[in-house]
Amino acid sequence: MSSEQRAGAVEKQTGRLESFSDGVFAVAITLLVFNLQVPHLPAGAISVPALGSALFAQWPSYLTFITSFATILIMWASHHGIFRMVYRADTPFLFANGLLLLLVTVVPFPTSLVTQYLGTPAAALACAVYAGIFVVINVAYNLLWWAATRQRHLLHPSVTPRQVKRLTRNILLGLPAYLLATLLAFWNPYVSLGLCSCLWIFWAFTFYEGSPSPRRLSGGQDVELAPESEA
Q1: Average pLDDT, the chain
Q2: Which residues sit opposite 222 in a β-bridge?
Q3: pTM flag (> 0.85)
């Protein structure tokens, strides 16, 4: 049996952990919708223009909902990208994943905070808290990736050192960037939110770069992870 065939024969042992994590992401992303409220107009003031004005006045709710929905979606995709490479779990990895899930469930809170205070004198602090949460989330991602890559014993054998190095670099990039977004919130809250959004767009386009793609038999068993070309 070739080394590639032996690598493909490695049994994936993280199915329960992935299912649990997917459930937490689903709950967190669902909670965001509670920030969207139906406007309540006085009985004598109900009209098309009044309702239109009331809906428009809630634009911070729409902005933060879309931003946070996209954020959690990309966090889930990034989490899935890590688990494409990980085929086993140990205690440090389990607790690192738990910390990340804890922080994922917190995202609706700063989202609600920005919804309530964007456009007010307190917007700077609200956006700083929002960006600060992602500083901590990035630390959690770094811990999860460190737990997966230390001594490489949790990674699928076909994952190359080049792939590990690239993903490590991309995850580490988030820490100074989110710290900058947190500080920028006190200068311009909208610039801070914009930087956070740009970072998640970056993750969306780069996280799967170089990650192995599983090939499946008709029975659904992972049989091969093709290593990235070094060219």
Answers
A1: 79
A2: 216
A3: no
